[in-house]
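Holo prediction. Input below; ligand is adenosine-5'-diphosphate.
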Amino acid sequence: MQMGKTKAQTSASDLADKFQSLLQQIIEDSTINLPWVDYLSKISKTLIEFSRCDAIELQLEKEKRDSCELIRRTKKSFHFDIISCTHDRAKEDIYKSIAVIPIKVGNHKVGHLQLMSRKENFFTKDEMALYENFILPLGLVLSNQRSQAALRERVKELTCLYGIAQAVEKPGTSLDDILESTVNLIPPAWQYPEITQGRITLNGQCYATPGFKAGPYKQTADIVVKGKKRGSIEVVYREKKQNIDEGPFLEEERHLINTMARELALIIDRKHSELEEQKLQAQLRHADRLATIGQLASGVAHELNEPLTNILGFAQLAQKDPQLPQQPQQDMEKIINASLHAREIVKKLLIFSRQMPTRKVKTNLNELIKDGIYFLESRCKKEGIEVVCSYAPDLPEIIVDQAQLTQVLINLAVNAIQAMPGGGKLEISTHTAGEHVSLVIEDTGAGMDKEILDQIFLPFFTTKDVGEGTGLGLSVVHGIVTSHGGSITVDSKVGMGTTFEIRLPKIETIESIAAEVE
Ligand code: ADP
Ligand code: MG
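Structure of the complex:
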């Protein structure tokens, strides 16, 4: 212990020992993996305590940059700054003794250590010689420590990006899953994981680390998909930390958050196109299937048509025979009714496969609905269903087969009524939008799940009991709407209700397409 002696009295060998243990202390400090600035704070503390100076300054050149890190420590304060290497600071003349020792790695000067004291002649010659010896290992330790800290940051960065890649690779992961795991990769990738929180916002939806709270120490990057801002990534420090490159954040962390945002934008874009493609393919498959079934149905219908006509014709002929006893007479009646029913089905199949001749005339859709709904109103009243109609004023006329379009209305309305056995509300409305006129039929009935929705246009698909439904209603609607160059969409929620929208082209649209074809 040197307690009793003054600085000057310390013997030369004691001094050498002290420098030896200082070096040991500094090497020991280097074995704990601290963030770079925290490490500098610790080293400078050890140095100021050792030197008993009033202030020390450590200036270190940054790699590949014409800037320096400036560390100032007095007994009470620690200050870290990044300055330009040529920066000329105002001299402070409160210090009477100043020692400047260049720090070198090999032959290359990488900075300097400046020791300052208010006392005059504070440094002895022996002491200075020892400082100069000591500075060489200090330079090596510092540069090694800096490379290690940089390496650790790089590993964190790569681990984070690898984590995102892994989340994407997992088969069957949704975008939700990916964003959820990405946000949890944020804390370990930043310098102070224990105080780091992350949040990703996408189209107004948030994914955040537990207990996320916005705060002043934060870094953000926008997620820009196809030139449009869709969300952002935020990283927040819960506590104040020493300012480094961008507030308390490293330049490398700015780079990482930007890379993450770009990476996520690509993933989001890819996921969206995948979904679009799936939807398109499903639509194509559906259209394709309906077309195939249409061909099949029309084949069967034509085949059945002839024998049916024969059965009906001969049955009617036989029934006319006055000598026919009563029993066969009644049987004939049944044969005729059954054949008529079968012919009705054949007719519907032919409509579905668009094989029925049509007679299209200019029509006002509003008028057609008013006439058609007339038949349904009394039935609705009986079943406790409120019918609300709203007609778009100035609805342009369309060219349609009126009987067929009435059939569309009736089929959709009957389905709606059947879906509301306990009463409800049936809304029928017309609209005009863009190149189309549309008819919307909305009910507050049972609704449908996806499995049913996928099949409703297939001929003979029904969920109803025998006698209540043949499963041809919507097939017929589909056939009619398609043969009019229109389209049909459904929106349904189980327990809430169903909305069908039929869109038919305006006359001008048909004419302009015809003109283009010519
Ligand atoms: P059907 O009415 O003879 O069963 P459709 O082709 O008209 O045949 O309808 C097929 C199926 O679609 C119905 O059995 C029913 O399950 C479902 N569906 C159609 N319209 C509605 C609706 N408005 N609400 C609930 N389900 C409906
Ligand atoms: Mg039906």
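Residues 273 and 427 are 36 Å apart (CA to CA). That is the main takeaway for now.
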